[in-house]
Amino acid sequence: MKTYITTAIPYVNGAPHLGHAEDYLLADIFARFKRMRGDDVKFQVGTDEHGNKIEKKADELGVDVKKYVDENSKKFQDFISKLGVEYTDFIRTTDSDHEKRVKAIWEKLQDHIYKSNYEGWYCEGCERFVTDNEYKENDGVCPDHQKPYSHLSESNYYYRVSDFKDEIREKIESNELLILPEFRKNEILKLLDDTPDVSISRPKAHLKWGVDVPGDSDQVMYVWMDALSNYITVLGYPDKDISDFWPATVQVVGKDILRFHAILWPAILLGLGLPLPKTLLCHGFILSNGQKMSKSIGNVVDPTEVLEKHGLDAFRYYFSRHVDTFTDGDFTWDKFEDAYNNELANDYGNLVQRLSNLCKKSEIGKKFLEERKVLENGKFKNSWDSDDAEYKRLMDNFEFTKGIDYAWNKIQDVNKRIEDTKPWTVAKENPDEAKVLLASLVSDLLNANEMLKPFLPIAKKVDEIFTSDKIEPPKTPLFPKEFKKA
Ligand code: MSP
Questions:
Q1: Quick check: pTM over 0.85?
Q2: Ligand 1: lining residues by beta carbon, under 6 Å
Q3: Angle 27-28-31 from CA coordinates, rounded to 5°
Q4: I need a surface site. Which of 247, 332, 368, 427 has the fewest CB within 10 A?
């Protein structure tokens, strides 16, 4: 099966922060899961490089905008790799192919575009036009960015979203466009009624850093118009037939940008005569100690510090299991250290160490496991592939936190079985029986380990340990206990 997974493309007006990791991790978990099921997976990531706030930031720093976005885009690319994200395509909105294709998209949408004057409010942080009602409700200050809205009075092109509202409503209500979680779907349905036509350009007098509007040298495209299109320009639209991978299987976005993806984006797609994505997976925000991360509060956690000190698997484990897929999550060093010590090191790392030690002592290797039918053709026999419908159901429904919980319970079951059966005592009294017992414990561990693979790259290493000719315990523990609580 063909599977297409997309992630929001971050603005490059700063370095990647902890929150950015959420999109990539959720998408990568799903991509790894789907690849294990044999799907042909296309997985897009990228950077959003136009718009006011980027232009302004580069100006403030006195650097050339292109040079500035080049440097920052590279930082995101490095960050994504450090997270172990196995993407297939990296798109930048300043790529010439993308710019050319966005212009072609604009031209195709002509029938739904008109010119008018815009007089109203704008949030530069959100890069969003704000309605008068919102302005009043928020007392003129963006609640997400804590900055006063700017007043704009300019001549713009508009996209007639009203042409598509009924169709969008119908597709969302019927789950043809599935919005997860359910409460977000309801929020969008409420918002849809109040959504006016969207201004999709800015006069060059106010913004230069953008894609030129075809046929009007005084205007550049509104950054969201340009950015949303990345999901199809990366597939080659409109130069190429994209039906192999479009509609996307899932588009992963944060809660602050769901409205663009659930209203404007579907309106653009319908204007182009393209089908809507199958699922919009909306995640919450990562907080730090229960608060929004902010430089002024001083609670910003640097993701590279977490990654460099404690490794990729610890990072991915924490965000998979301790940050709920659909709601806001919290990062504190305390919680992270507890998860590392008590769960990764104790439950998983120790289990691998202990069981591989016991296997070594009892001289169990691949050959023996094969004889015991634990392994067949060098592959693990009772894999969930054939029999764990519940795990598959959770993962197919994007319930990743529940998926890893499910696998972890199985890890804990193996630990409990070791405690209950005491194979080291059996080994003294009846070595043959001990071997059989160990083979079944390895079987259970590898079963659970298989389910951990979408989350933890290290699970592949655990497989290798137990499926090599001679089982050798790792020289250093998989998760050395490194936190000493002060
Ligand atoms: N450039 C737009 C997205 C365009 S997609 C066609 C944008 N960029 S962003 O840098 O502000 O955000 C990128 C992604 O990071 C979004 O999905 C956003 O929700 C997510 N997050 C930003 N801060 C976050 C947290 N603190 N926690 C979790 N995700 C957050 O919006």
A1: yes
A2: 8-11, 19-20, 22-23, 48, 227-228, 230, 253-254, 256-257, 285-286, 293
A3: 90
A4: 332
